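Write out the bound-state structure for zinc ion.
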Amino acid sequence: MQLALVNNEKVEAFTGGRGNCPVCGAETIAKCGPRIMHHWAHHRITDCDPWWENETAWHREWKNKFPLECREVSDVAEDGEIHRADVKTPTGIVIEIQHSTMTDAERISREEFYKNLVWVIDGTVFQDNFDIYHMLPNPKSELAQDLVWSKAKRHMNGANAGLFFRLSEALEDAPSVTKATLRGGWIHGIYDIEEEVKKSYNGYHQYDWVRPRKTWLDAKCPVYIDFGDEHLVKLDTYDESGLKCIRLVSKRKFVHDVMVEDKAENIATRFYPITSGKP
Ligand SMILES: [Zn+2]
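---
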C-alpha cells in the first residue's frame, strides 16, 4: 500500500518508517529500497484486504493524480466488511484501478460493495486486440437520430470506415421499424455525411475488441481503459440499436470530473469551462 497511519495521519512510506494499516490496524513497515517502488507492508500478516492487488508503477501513477486524502480510503459496509478503495473522491465516487484480470464474481462483488464506482483498467496488455474505427456523431445530435450504423469488426473494411442505414428510408417500407429492429435497407457510406459527423463529434467511435475480457463488457459500473496516451477509452452503448461503441475522454477531463460529479455515470457528461490561470 502507498499510505499508512503514522500518528493518525496517512503518510507515504519513508526510510525506517513504522506505521499502522488503516484497514486492520496491524503494524506496517516502510519498504524504501533503491530499486523498489516505496510502499508499506504488513509486518506479520499478508495484506489484509483480499481485494488489494500488488501495485504496479501504472497503478501508483494513477493514484498520484489525486490528492493524498483521496487515496486508499477505507470503506465499511453495514455488515462490517471493510475494503480499501484505490481512490475515493470528496463527492463519493470510488475509482478502482485494475491492472490484472478479474473474474465476474470479483467484479460483481466490488460493484455491489462500492456501488458509486468507476473502473480504470490497464489496456496496454491487450492493446493489439483493440481497434478503434470511424467517428460517430454525438448520439444526442439530430443527425444521429436517423442513422443506424453497421457494426465494425476487424477485417470488415467497409463497416470500419463507416456504413449506415437511414431510419427515415426504412420507415417508408416498414412503418413500425425502429433503430432496434432495423436489419437492412439502402446502405450509405460515411463519406456522404463526413462534414456533419465531424461537426457533431464528441469522442464516440466504433471499435472492435478481439477476444475481449468479457467481464468489462458486462460491468454495471462505467469502465474506462487506459492505453497509455492522453485519452481514456470508455466502453459504451451508442443508441437504441444496441451498437457497442467507445468514447474517448481526455484523462484531464476524467480527473476533473470525478472530483466534482457525485455519480460515476455522470463523468464526462457535462461541459466545464477550463478555469483560466491553470495550465
Ligand atoms: Zn491491514
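---
The first helix runs from residue 57 to 63.
The radius of gyration is 22 Å.
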